[in-house]
Design brief:
With 278 residues, this protein is of the alpha/beta class. It is built from 10 helices and 8 strands. It has an 8-stranded mixed sheet with strand order 1-2-4-3-5-6-7-8, with helices on both faces.
Length: 278
């Protein structure tokens, strides 16, 4: 094929993407500018193609699931291990996979003013998605889920911003970060645990759970019995039970890998679909 023909095809595809309504474009990589971090952040947005799922409306609206990757991943990670389009069709929702950087932990880094991923997700990204896609823009039609570091991030952001999400799906979350205080670059951001226990406890889910009085969301906690995150998850269950905090537990045979949780996450979309239809 000649260079001119290749160029023409690229230009045609580009102009078609500008003309088509966004709800007809299945999956897009988008750059969202973060004012708090002064840079563009990549995200993968996947939209269900079953238009009838939105009630056969001429201009359908969809719920949104924010799906967070784990440590060392990026916005492409979930799409490399799962069929995100099938996930979106089953849930009948838009799925947004944000880039949480290699090691952000989805918090605002206390050691610098550059990495503000909690602010980005809770304020900037949600605002952008609701302004540029066919969403409802309400808590009742918005959920967050994540694996490992992303599971931690889903819990942390949902509990810090209870006005945002109607459902949180925590998959193999690191519930007690002090168990792994010398791993995954956390000490680079929070300082050494022995010298900064107060700062660590402010970011430690186990400690945050101890202060919970109530929640206004469906909380699904998934962890494999062979997963190294399981002991921390069991302690989390004990705390939540003692404080009478409603949550759903899913235990299964799984180690700490995306692939071990794929089927469970896929099946959980049925529950999420029901929640979105309330």
């Amino acid at each position: 094929m000649s260079t001119n023909k290749k160029t023409a095809k690229i230009l045609i595809a580009f102009f078609i993407s500008l003309i088509l309504p966004k709800f007809l474009i299945a999956s897009q990589m988008i750059q969202v500018h973060s004012l708090s971090m002064n840079r563009n952040i990549p995200n993968l947005v996947t939209i269900p193609q079953t238009i009838k799922s939105a009630g056969n409306k001429k201009n359908p609206k969809f719920p949104v699931l924010y799906l967070l990757h784990g440590y060392s991943g990026d916005y492409r990670t979930w799409s490399e291990v799962l069929d995100i389009q099938s996930l979106a069709e089953r849930c009948e929702c838009i799925i947004v996979c944000p880039d949480g950087a290699y090691n952000s932990w989805y918090w605002n880094n206390p050691s610098d003013s550059i990495n503000r991923y909690e602010t980005y997700l809770a304020k900037e990204l949600i605002s952008y998605v609701d302004s540029n896609y066919a969403t409802y823009g309400t808590k009742g039609k918005r959920a967050v889920a994540g694996f490992s570091m992303g599971g931690y991030g889903a819990n942390y952001i949902a509990l810090n911003h209870p006005e945002l999400f109607t459902c949180t799906i925590s998959i193999a979350s690191i519930m007690d970060i002090t168990e792994f205080s010398e791993q995954w670059d956390m000490a680079d951001q929070l300082g050494p645990f022995p010298k900064n226990p107060e700062l660590w406890n402010q970011h430690n889910l186990i400690e945050i759970f101890k202060g919970l009085k109530s929640i206004n969301m469906t909380w699904i906690i998934i962890c494999g019995r062979e997963d190294f995150a399981y002991p921390g998850t069991l302690r989390a269950f004990e705390i939540l039970k003692k404080r009478k905090i409603p949550h759903q537990r899913i235990s299964l045979s799984a180690q700490h890998s995306y692939s071990d949780y794929g089927t469970t996450l896929y099946n959980t979309m049925d529950t999420l679909k029901t929640i979105f239809k309330r």
